[in-house]
Structure formats: structure tokens, C-alpha cells
Amino acid sequence: MEEYVHWKKLTNPDYIGAYSFLPGEKKVLTIDYVKQEMVCGADGKKEQCIVAHLVGEKPLVLCRTNCKAIAEIAGTPNILKWKNVKITAEVKKVKAFGEIVEAVRISSKPPVSSDETKISCEDCGEFITPQAGMTAKELAEYFKSKCGKYLCYTCAVKYSKKMSDKKENEAKSNEAESNNTKSNDAGSDAPSEATESNESEIAHEDNENKD
Length: 211
Prior knowledge:
alpha+beta, five-stranded antiparallel beta sheet, single chain, elongated, 38% helix, 2 domains, 211 residues, 5 strands, 3 helices
């Protein structure tokens, strides 16, 4: 294979950039920690940036787009919960400052390990992927215990809302039936009271006739 060294590797060796990738390469990276720190760019300018420090790799400066992608994979925007989260990074062409440039972009879908058992979601049929710091198998077993079937994260959220709406509708239906029952009971008491009143009047008239 022909050796490939991007010239930008020589200008900013402290961070991962588009120049760190071979053409078409994807990297699976593991986050160690994330923090805000001063970064010196290739032009010598310094600015505060969000930086992901990675296991066994140089740090990666994060843009808003990549932060959102990591938050989706981790299941939380809390950077303190991003430790050990695995991400897939690749180079894409994006529009910035009026021109098309290469930039590192992180997939919003977590990487699937080749040796991990693949489990399909029983609702949508897609393979269940790691989410919120849990492996695909752990997530599948968790939702199996909670929902009674293997579900991906997205379908589990939909299922949970569906069950919640169903319980709410059942509660409203039961409340309506209870109110109807009370109303019917109240209506059935009225004739009884009228009958008792009539019987009392008849008895009174009988006594008067005997006299």
C-alpha cells in the first residue's frame, strides 16, 4: 500500500484532524474525558474550544455538530457521562466560511463491534445498537425485562409512551364508568323514595276510612 502523509499533519500535530485519516478511512475512538481548553490553531490564533481526549489517540477538537452526535450516542448531553463512550469518526466535505473543506465528523450512531452478537428489534426489525453506555446485548435484555420483548432504544421510547397513553385512557374510562354508576344509583333511589311516600299516604288514608 502506498504511504500517505497529509501535509497538515506537519502543521498541527497536537490534535486529530481530517489530515489524520487515510482516504475513505473510519476510526473507532474511545473517549477518555472532555473539557474546555485553550487551543492554538495552525494560524497561531488561540481560542477556547471543547476538546475530547481519547484513549490511545491525540485529542479531537469538537464542533457543535460533533458534540450533538456524541450526546445522542451517550444518551445524555452531560460530558461527565461521556467517558468510555465509543464513537466512529470519518472525514466529510462540509461548507464553511464560504468554501468546501474537509472536516472530521462523528456518526450519531454508535459503532457495532464485529464480535458482538447482533439482536434485532422485534418492532422495527433493525439491529439493536449500543446506547447510553450499554452494549447492544445489555440494552436488549433490559428492554426485554421492561417491555416483554427485544426493542431498540427508539422503539422502546415509543412503546413506553404507548403504554403510558393506554394507562391514562383506561384511567379516564374507569373514572367515566364510575361516574355513570353513581349517577344511575342516584336515579334509582328517587323512585324508591317516591314509593315510600305513596305507601305512607295510602296507609294514612286507610286509617282515616277505618275511623
